[in-house]
Write a structure and sequence with these properties.
globular
Length: 149
């Protein structure tokens, strides 16, 4: 499993991994990276799929990935987080692809979760945003933590 799952398994599930369906998005490597609109469409498909299950189950949808990096862009991160808080699927679908490359492509992991949660009537609560600068040149990785309730 990629490191994104390992983090969730160890830190969130505390090594008690529950039944789940891992979904891997190739956000990083060309030529088959999904566009932001495709990631939003995935979230729009996940919400009704979960709602259609005949059993009354408690379901968690988890994304793992940073925000802007390897050069931190706090303004862009704020825009992304604001669109998710507002439940603005159209705005998320229109995020510029040139900002969603390299490490910052991990933002695309957030889009299906934000979209599925919003479609299910949940609202985002930003728990924390931490721009983790490593150098005076602005390199690092911005971290965001959010829940939908």
């Amino acid at each position: 499993m990629p490191h994104a799952f390992g983090f969730v398994y160890r830190k969130i599930m505390r090594d008690r991994v529950l039944p789940h369906v891992p979904v891997v998005l190739n956000t990083f490597y060309p030529p088959n990276q999904p566009r932001a609109a495709r990631c939003v469409a995935l979230g729009e498909a996940i919400a009704p799929a979960v709602a259609s299950w005949p059993d009354d189950l408690r379901v968690a949808i988890v994304a793992s990935g940073g925000l802007s990096h390897f050069v931190i862009d706090e303004e862009f991160d704020g825009k992304v987080l604001g669109l998710m808080e507002a439940g603005d699927r159209g705005g998320l679908a229109q995020l510029p692809e040139n900002y969603l490359q390299s490490g910052s492509s991990e933002i695309k992991n957030w889009l299906p979760v934000a979209t599925a949660a919003q479609a299910a009537g949940l609202r985002m609560e930003l728990v924390d945003y931490v721009p983790c600068y490593r150098s005076k040149a602005g390199t690092g990785n911005a971290m965001g933590f959010a829940v939908w309730q």
